[in-house]
Amino acid sequence: MRPALALPVLLLLAACERSGEDAPPDAGEATGNAAIHVIELDVAEAGRRMARGEFDSRQLTQAYLDRIAAIDDGGPMLNAVIELAPDALAQADVLDAERAAGEVRGPLHGIPVLIKDNIDVAGLVNSAGSLALADHRPADDAYLVARQRAAGAVVLGKTNLSEWANFRSSRSTSGWSSRGGQTRNPYVLDRNPCGSSAGTGAAIAASLATVGVGTETDGSILCPSAVNGLVGLKPTVGLVSRDGIIPISISQDTAGPMARTVADAAALLTVLAAADPADPAGAGAEGKTADYLAGLDPQALAGKRIGVLRQAMGYHPAVDAATERAIEALRAAGAEVVDPVEIATWRQWGSAEFEVLLYEFKDGLDSYLADSGAPVVSLEALVAWNRDNADRAMPFFGQELFEQALAKGPLTEPAYLEAHAKARRLAGEEGLLALLREKQLDAVVAPTTGPAWPTDPVLGDHFTGAGYGVAAVAGTPSVTVPMGEVQGLPLGLSFMGPAWSEADLLAMAYAFEQATQARRPPAFTPTLAP
């Protein structure tokens, strides 16, 4: 499914049994280059080692390409990377020449990054995982991709995702797309990686790149980050440009960083965040960006008022137990824990949110397809294409969400305007924001979601619960950090705050991360034994 690199160098498949001690080898070891150990390699350490001359960006990029061949295409066969950039090594050569000349653009100089396959990267396919767009190669980079290139990142390739970012069917299977097949969770291979940023989650967890970019409308960064043992940040809507992203909702869509550490997520967000006048929400970001990496502080929780949202608990005893330990860690780090707190409008926004997504998906997708010169020019044409190619496009589930969206009218209709105002009010002004204000909280915490479920293409996903939805609908930031595990399956804790509070949330998440050290690398276990 992935084009081969012109350089020397998803459906479930059987894998050899592995344990944590018998995990796939580091690419450096596999190629005999003992200087490059990419497993769990972070941005800062990679930069230091390149500065010392221990390896260069070309060697680092090649090490990741080798690991992708060994882990994604072979071995456990994660099926996380859908396409590789044929010029990845050439990009690295340019950046190595700059470093040799004394020019270093910043922390991401020479660092390989993977991008979700619903974001335009010039020369690569942007398909949202759909075979209908398998030949769609945008001419220009998305704004956020251009910013990464300008910061010195090597665009290594694209990652698989839940097809159409999980907005095709209510019975979909996360991590599956007709173009990319099924992505696997690197912790337990027959478990689901969640979505829709499934490929980015699995790839970064398995050290197939240093950092990655996902997108979220409601949970699509936070859920795959949590179940793949990652830090994931959903920014305030408008902080990161949506230019060049295949849309679902202009009200809720955003891209954000997915990384193995808070520091790496902060380094990437510093590059991604920018006020883009082409984004309808971009003006709000003017003056709101920051050097998020510089703001990290291991003492950042001291004196902070943190509310515990127990409305987002109670669906799994092991998740509740891990959350209780996380709450004690917050207290030990000096936070004033307000327990419990409640959102008066909890989950009352759901039906209004869904109505908004249906309207905005049709409007936004029609505009993207027409403006980008895609081979399928509208949602109506896409629905017809799927019907004509149902054996390839819809072998497991249908397109009922597409059909519901197709029936919607323009964004001037009263039904849309009323739903939009209601969803934002119930989740935002009368929901999360009211709670933060009335209890004078710096942040609210909740378990991000439950442990990864077995992948099931027949019955679809098996969500048990989640705490991130309120921030998604409110358009406000949230960050998930590893907080523990259940039988080797990672669990995350989410920090949620007011608009433009990314710097504070990352600092608190960093303090929690440093105090708990909860992340464990994946073990590539085939299944959970009784």
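The above is record 1. Record 2 follows with the same two-line structure.
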Amino acid sequence: MAPNPDRTEQGNAGETQQRGGETLTTNHGIPFSDNQNSLRAGHRGPTLLEDFLLREKIFHFDHERIPERIVHARGSAAHGHFECTDPIPELTRASLFAKKGKKTPVFVRFSTVAGGAGSVDTPRDVRGFAVKFYTDDGNWDLVGNNIPVFFIQDAIKFPDLVHSVKMEADRGYPQAASAHDTFWDFVSLMPESLHTVIWAMSDRAIPRSYRMMQGFGVHSFKLVNDQGETRFVKFHWRPRLGMQSLVWDESAKMQGADNDYHRRDLYEAIAAGDHPEWDLGLQIFDQELADSLPWDVLDATKIIPEEIVPLRMVGRLVLDRNPDNFFAETEQVAFLPSNIVPGIEFSDDPLLQGRLFSYLDTQKSRLGTTNFHQIPVNAPKCPFANMMRDGMMQTQVPKGRANYEPNSLDQAGEDPGPRASAEGFATAPQEVSGPKLRIRAESFGDHYSQPRLFWRSQTANEQAHIASAFVFELSKVGLGHVRSRVVSHLRNIDEDLAKRVAAGLAIELPEAAKPFRDPIDIAPSDALSIQKNWQPTLKGRKVGILFAEGSDKAELDALVAAVEKAGGTPFTIAPKVGGIALAGGEAKADGQLAGSPSVLFDAVALVLTEEAAQKLARDGAAVGFVMDAFAHLKAIGHTPGAQPLLDRAGIEPDEGVTDLSALPQAAARRYWDREPKVRDLA
């Protein structure tokens, strides 16, 4: 086909529409008129099954990897239960919310998004938070992330997003990293992605532990009660240990110290009986409130601040059993956003609508058979029966002839098979009208107000982390025009942010990008900040305790006991792991110094004599142990004899550098005020 003249246009909601060049077609040669929007019933209606362009694009994308997941390939999981603490039968007929104290088995998988199965646990990335509820009425899969928004507004863009963030197609790197040309080129042309990007540049993208990470259902869903009345709902998981993150330098060093840091942390906590827990909070709102907001609740790039719709806590999630076999369970578990139960329904969110098709298709590709639901980790724990009998790897042995309905085989004394029930799933009535349109509603067109909200809700220290993350990521981008275009978008979020990033990159401040819809100011929300919500507790945290020959055994034992009493986990470290002679006895270390760097711990202690400290001051591993702990803003407890090692590491006294008696309390937090002394931030 003859190429059209090159041109770039804005679509109906400000999305980038590119024309010109070789004509874009399906695999069968049918030309696309719009590669940005799926086909829906009306401007804000549901996506139509007849959209063969969407289905072919997603179908091809779903089958690009065998058998590894294309995204969320590296995961960790656990069994547990969900307990209803505040029943809401007036809002939903879903059985798991019907009665206080009702427990529902669950299987939960956490994951990184961009890296392959062999990548590392701690890169800067969005984290998956997927929960499979084995309810009385079948499986409900709440498949979300640790960030409440997503990069795109329409599922037809998902293959483009993932292709851009994955390894560059011609060179196969970088792995598990967004700091490269193609991702930021995509971002710079898709301003709708900026809200998720600013979350990803924050400390939310480098969590300390899965156990200290929030989770979100991302989309607006619906609750339906027995009377067929509907309300919108957003799902939030809140960790009972509170949120905690790493700092960027710590995260990068962690990748060398322990590739499996998050996986090991989750497994060991459950094995030790320190069962991770989350509260489930719901944001419940009606159509009237949805209509009053200056953004669209069907837009997956937007949140509703908790100051507008507070959370109602309805249940508790507890993970109390590790998988028996990683492959059989963690690897073979299949989550489907299309798995919902009576009382929960989909909204017309165009990103969610595309996911309903994509995940089912993907699981067939990964697991090799349409019968993947028979794998134990995927099978419902309630009775299930239907007429679908054959297919590869059928493990059940259905009897009789009833593999169709309607049938009258019961009149001949045969089993007629299952029948539909009036009590089963029935979609709540909803008016759907309007023309078939491949278009995006103008109400999706504000791409800057919510990133501005997130930025202004952070502490000054968190803002410095975000600006520095933009500088780091864009410094890896070789295309100068892409760097400038990203900064031009940042000017619409916050002028100071844009200036700091431009200065960090040593580039001229570009003109601000022209917004499709002018941003508005939204009142800051403290709920969006990690540091404002930090829980000062040692529970769930780990303290590395360095000792050596001649250390006082009584001091060592007392510190171990004090950390345990405060709810923390002590981990002893020495130059050698065998029995070491101490003043007052002997002790064996849990780990050897060179293999136990301080990045693995939330705080450290030095139980040393002056002679041992002078010797360790000549050991690079010991000096690095202390320097990194200080640089990563952690508490450092020490005996007076440890001073030579502190001096060699250049430690300046502050409130986080304490004696041993004060360490358990000091270790409950990090010392953000220290950061300007140890690194330059944008």
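The chain has 19 helices and 22 strands.
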